[in-house]
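the two lines:
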Amino acid sequence: MSLDVTAGEALIQNNLEKFLLVLSVSLTVATLSRTVSWMRQIPYTLLLVIVGVFLAFEDVRLVNLSPELILEIFLPPLLFEAGWNLHWKHLKQDLIPVTLFAIVGVMISIFGMGWLLATFTSIPLPVCLLVGASLSATDPVSVIALFRELGVGERLTVLMEGESLFNDGVAVVAFGLLVGLATGSQEFSLQATISNFSVFVGVGVGVGSAIGFGISYLTQRFDLPLVEQSLTLVAAYGTYVITENLGGSGVIAVVTTGVILGNFGSRIGMNPRTRLLVTEFWGFIAFFVNSIVFLLIGDRVQFDSLQESLVPIAIAIGGLLLTRAIGIFGLGGFSNWVAKSDIKLPELTVLWWGGLRGSVSIALALSVPVMLPEREDVIGIVFGVVLFTLLVQGLTTKSLLQNLSLLDENSRKQEYTEVVARRAALERVLQHLQQQQVRSDVPPEFYNYQTSLIQGELNQLQHQLQHLQNEDPDLKDYASQLLKDELLAIEADTYAEFVKSGQLNQELAPFLQGQS
Amino acid sequence: MSLDVTAGEALIQNNLEKFLLVLSVSLTVATLSRTVSWMRQIPYTLLLVIVGVFLAFEDVRLVNLSPELILEIFLPPLLFEAGWNLHWKHLKQDLIPVTLFAIVGVMISIFGMGWLLATFTSIPLPVCLLVGASLSATDPVSVIALFRELGVGERLTVLMEGESLFNDGVAVVAFGLLVGLATGSQEFSLQATISNFSVFVGVGVGVGSAIGFGISYLTQRFDLPLVEQSLTLVAAYGTYVITENLGGSGVIAVVTTGVILGNFGSRIGMNPRTRLLVTEFWGFIAFFVNSIVFLLIGDRVQFDSLQESLVPIAIAIGGLLLTRAIGIFGLGGFSNWVAKSDIKLPELTVLWWGGLRGSVSIALALSVPVMLPEREDVIGIVFGVVLFTLLVQGLTTKSLLQNLSLLDENSRKQEYTEVVARRAALERVLQHLQQQQVRSDVPPEFYNYQTSLIQGELNQLQHQLQHLQNEDPDLKDYASQLLKDELLAIEADTYAEFVKSGQLNQELAPFLQGQS
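prediction for all of em together
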């Protein structure tokens, strides 16, 4: 045992250095992607995949941890963050289509892809179904990273994130069952399948809810920002580990905890400043972990096995796009008809094309038992399809959104906020200008010209705001809310400055927070 | 190798669960320590040590990683955070006493303790010197955690933190040399010692400066908050790993990087909001890591070896207090005489009694080679002394500060600053509110209500300030000092902005600094 511990520690030490290398590469890519103009067209995460593939091509392999462990380390924080930022209020409105996509859509995809592959290749049906199961769940991490970077509207994001966050449970159960069938260790039984699925999802939702509500009510009893922030981190990993040990879906459990803490716990148990801090903290964690995950996805490509599987990969891609079309347009239409969900055709098109596959698919493929002779084929096909979805679908989704003019349709609140931001910036400039006017070293005409320029723009902005408010009276409340948030932020930032300059020991609870 | 990887991964997996357990215990302790009134008297970190010792007594061992690895994981972020928040402006003023304490003080301690132990016990002199070297460096983590929680004044904190951050280099070099002597593998040579020490410290300062200034100038070229935040994390671990691999002092290197990024890089390369976010992020990391480290220190106690070494422990404690008295009072007096540093007797007393030992001492003791027959004795003695400094000295430092009335004056100033901070925040809010009043997009009743609310609170704060000044006329000077610091900060920040925007090459020396 002592030897194993040493080997393990060498592994950790070795990997610490490798992770530092991975991060350095990722941060370089991140910096280039924002500063070099032609790279700005490519979403940052996809650029990382490309760099990773390039490194793999040069046979530079960055980290040699098993995919299960990578998932255990990186998946919980990403899922928790997604849940934390998911608006339950919006998800509730689209619960029916999301549930249909996540359950029925995945099944259509598994059997459709499996059948197509078995028909057009010589791979046996059970193995084809395994490939189908690996590839049927859209990847929350990839989808969320892409949609956020592109700035897709609220509803599309909720539909896509909701589906991605909840369909893993279905795919993982189906996969486990199909592994049993493919290796001949288990016979199919509808009853057992349904019962397995219920336990898997039920334990996930149960543990997630218990931890989520438990922490929500706990944090209501005290106001300790650092403890509350730490608790969210412990909750993310703890929920995942406990649920997996109990035989439930860790993915579903973490998402549940995240949704509860983000939508309920953070409101009843945290002061606004803590909520903001925690949200910013998780935003950073998501950026940080994504920087690692997408580079590693690219870096794990095995070119040999890709080349050998070109034909089945092409068939699988066709099957994936076809079955997803059936699932999304069919179920979407059904939901529009039954539940009046009113998802428009352009939105359905984006849901169809934007359903990327990622780390979850890869992890499932890599967990195919070594005893199965077709294991390498499964891995090769899955990697090929994942790369296609990330690089081809991922890179073209932006154009698709533009062509469907879904990107232009910014929510009115967003437009309002932009005008407010512009007004705030110009007011600050004007104020600065007026303070300077007493100086004699700049010609007064310059001041007058600039002042009238800005004043004119400000008047126009004011008209624009008025116009927006007339169009949508709800924006009046929104304006008051914006201003109140602003005031609270100024107060809280001032305390933070006092702390940073060493004059105060700890931040004060904002006075304005208690006032309605 | 494949087997080793599996063993390593099992270790990581196993330890993830254990760390979650550790964190749950720590957060419970943190919450209790702020909510249960009698526990509020005990600094949180020391409460964690006590709980850890209790768990060890019940033979609950939480984590079985080697101390080297624990140091490699936990030390860099703690040291970086300490460096980031260290005010170079203040440290510069006390550079002479800090350097004297960190170099000469450590030597006095090593030889004094070694000689006392060798005289009064039967342990051979080289081993006694090893004990002395392990225990001679005050522990930055413990000291900083304690002083911050107690709210000790700025100057005492700088003196203590400065010493603790820089004396490790001396102790580690001395320890390495003494291990060679004790195991008979090396002969003493003054020349070799000095050259070793120079390389060790020089490489540390060199690598730390290179990385610190490199990142400072790099981040000046772009404004990407998440990348800059990630870079500080990469910098903390990267500096440590690179320097240790080059044979330098990782501790000194990380501190150097932290001081440079916190005092220079964050001013020229980050916008104020990023700087604040990064500071808050590191504050959280420090809390989080401290929650783990102090519990583990307590949990690692071996009661058997403590019991066997009771007599040498008592002698070592005596030696430690005696040699530190000579070092602090002697060198402090010398510095007061030569450099006019004017450190008062009560302050020296706190520096003497508050010099806690912690994780660095334990790590050094545990790294004594197994071939040395007295290894267990060394570990037992060092653990005993560390526990004494943490539990006895740590728990009584607050009373000492109160008796020397170093905390009272400070807490009144603190109270005054809190009111001032609140007034500044609300004045800023009010000003913002009044600028907005011309806008027509928010109902006027909202403005009037908020304005009267804030105005009322401001009047009350003004009364409170008057009352505090009447009670203690010294606060008038303090108020002037606060305003002067504020003006100086505005001036310095303005130059930093000019540098950041590329209009100035280097920061100007503040005009107000020269004025009394």
